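ok so i was messing around last nite and threw this chain in just to see what happens. nothing serious, just curious
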Amino acid sequence: MSSATQLLQSYVEGPHDPASVLSLFAEDGVLEAPYFATFGMPWQFKGHEALAATFGHLGHIYPDLRFENLRITCAHEHVVVGEYEFIATSATTGRRVHQLSNITLVEKGGRISLLREFQNIAEIALALFPGGLAGVDIPADRALQIGAYSDQN
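result:
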């Protein structure tokens, strides 16, 4: 059975094709990228079907995607927090993306039950939109309540 730390190491160091990544997730596993809500984009992906589509799409946008320099900042038996560098060239804009991502992983039954990533949205905009941030039309009705604590004031 894999620990949270081992799962995070496998996620960062391993191949990033959908089949390899899905093997790390529980059937009902969840990927969250809360800052995507800023652009009005989906930010939460639940279950293998949604995860497979998301990681497949990621591979099309970033065919040379790699993660490097994992640094564990806090680890417990079932939870690990760390950061890593996300490096790729966007097939959409041709721009090189190099950013530091923060990640929280929750393990249950030797698989990932929750993977929450926080990315630099300026880098994401440069990768996805030809005009960078200037090309982003941020919807006024975007989801502003994200994460477990968003409804607590």
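not much to say yet. The domain at 4-135 is CATH 3.10.450.50 (Nuclear Transport Factor 2; Chain: A,).
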